[in-house]
Structures are given as C-alpha cells and as structure tokens.
Amino acid sequence: MYKFSFFLLSLLVLFSGCNISESSDDSDSSPSLPDPQPAPVDPYSKYQWNFHYTPDLLYVQDGSSSYISDAQTYTLGGGATIAIIDSCFDVTHEDAPQRIIATYNAQTKGSDVSCYGAETHGISVSGVAGAAANGIGLVGVAPNANFILIKIPMENLSMSDLVDAFMFAKNHGADVISNSWGTYHITDTERDLFDSIQSSGISIVFACGNDGASLDDPSIEDECEASSVIGVGSSNEHNQMASYSNYGRKMDILAPSGEYGIVTIDAKGSAGYNQDQLHTLNDNDYTYFAGTSAAAPETAGVIALLKSINPSLSPLRIRDILRRTGEDISGYPKINAYNAIKNAN
Length: 345
Description:
Elements lengths: L1 E2 L64 H4 L9 E6 L13 E6 L15 H10 L15 E6 L7 H13 L4 E4 L1 E2 L5 H12 L3 E5 L22 E6 L17 E4 L5 E4 L20 E4 L2 H18 L5 H10 L2 E3 L2 E3 L2 H6 L3
Parallel strand pairs: 1-6, 2-4, 2-5, 3-4, 5-7, 7-8, 8-9
Antiparallel strand pairs: 10-11, 12-13
Helix pairs in contact: 2-5, 3-4
C-alpha cells in the first residue's frame, strides 16, 4: 500500500449528481438468490486460502478465509462495476479482468494505463478483485463484474488529478471504487469528494496501511478513516490480525491477505513482484501479494457480489452488512462473503 504526500492545488470542485441519500432505506425482505452453481476453479485456486479452506497448505488455519468460493456459488458479480484507482495496469495479461469497460490515465487524460518501469502495483490489485475465470491462473473475487481501470501517479499526485480520477469512476457507472493507497493526511477537498461520491450511491474502499500503527494517533488522518469510506485492514493465515496491519477506531473491517500473501496476477516475465516465498507457483506471471493493498480490492470484489445480488443496496447498508455478518477478529469484523450474500437485503 502506498502512502504519499499531495502537491495541493487551489481549486473549486463542483460535485454534482448526488441523487441518492446516504440514509436511503433498503428493502427489509431477503434477496431472491439464484439457484447455486459450482464456483469456478482455475489451476491456482488450490492456493487461494482467502477463498476457501485449503488443507494442503499446512500453514493455513481452517476458518481464515472469507468464504468467497461459497458466495460465488450464487454470483460472480455480473452487472456490478468496480473502479480501481492505482499505479498502472496490464489489460493484455492472460488473466486480467475480462470485462474492462473503460481505462483512464488521470495525469495524461488519455486511455493508456500501461506500466512502465518497475511500478506494477495496480496489476496485482486488479487480479485480486477480478482475475478472469478462464481456466488459467486464478479466479478473482468478482470475475464477471465490469471494471474501470484508472491510472494515477503514485508520486507527486495533484489534487486535481485525484478529483478527476474519482469523477471519471463516478461518471462511468462505478458501484464501488477501490483504493490501495493513502496519504495519512486527508484534505478537506478529499472529504467533500468522498461524501459526494458516497451520496451518489457509490461505495469507496481504502486500504488502511501496513505500518502496524494506530490510526488513532492524532497526527494521522488517513483517507481510510473518512466517514464516507470503508477502511480495510488485513487478517492472516492464522485468522488473526496481520502483524503489519494498521488499526484504529475508525477502521471498519478486515479482509484476509496474510503474512505470506494471497495469489494474484503479476507483471509478465521478469518484471513485477515475482514473489513465491512458498515455492508453489513457479510462474513469473503470478505472485503472492500481501498487505492491506490486497485486502482492499478483495473487499471491493465482495461489494460487487452484493450489488450483483441486490443493486438497490446503498453504501451505508453495504458497510452495515459487511460489519454485521463478519467474524470478530481482534475486535474487528472479518469479511464473510457467504454470510454477506445471504443477508444482502
């Protein structure tokens, strides 16, 4: 996960289209779930301990997953749209999200979101949320969701580019916006932006950071702590809070990304992370990816599953469902995707 400082710009931003109240009511009736179908299985699914219990992985404790495979028997996220704002992406990767409806470079104002050089963070993030269910590699949380991939510079990000990125996601129909970065110094412009985005019916997810630090420190005011944001920390293979995960009263939930990491796509060939601490993949196009950077897109994928089942769910209702149906880990609810789907009302 990235933490960086903004070059603040003086600008006036008009936030429009706020036509859904934050306090909008959802139906009290349970959703009509489709008949369950087998969850998709790809070759590296056997390593996806965050999806289901994997007894062959001896370092993984039973119950440490988010039960995503169980939730996927009801939906793969079809009809929902996930926007990811990150460093860069590889839309040509064999296991990249298949339903990419828009790409945008907030710095150049063009559509090229490719990676140049060593920075490939967004590639792995996108795979967690939406790697294709295509018989290759692994399966993302919501492989049938639509995806909007938005590239931002991870260094020297201007406020105008940040606003542009979020407004592009909003204007292109995002249901949830996933952010595996933060600054520890949120601005008033960001707070207003996030409030406006949430009021328009879009959930915002932010990773809470990997410094093992308390976000209750008065010197820290991170994006993940904003009232209109779902802030995500990490749990590990032993069903505990991950050793690196930040924590604090305003952090909302945990999602499993582990000490060793969860499997996702990587930059192809010798570029990228190429992390295989467990000596299982032997494949430079895939990697183990840890940190709250992995927990955030996992959460965004689960939100897409919920929106696929019940498109009327408001951001506040979604946060309530995720928290209420989760398992308590170190005082925080850890996502249980199956329970959430069963309560998507």
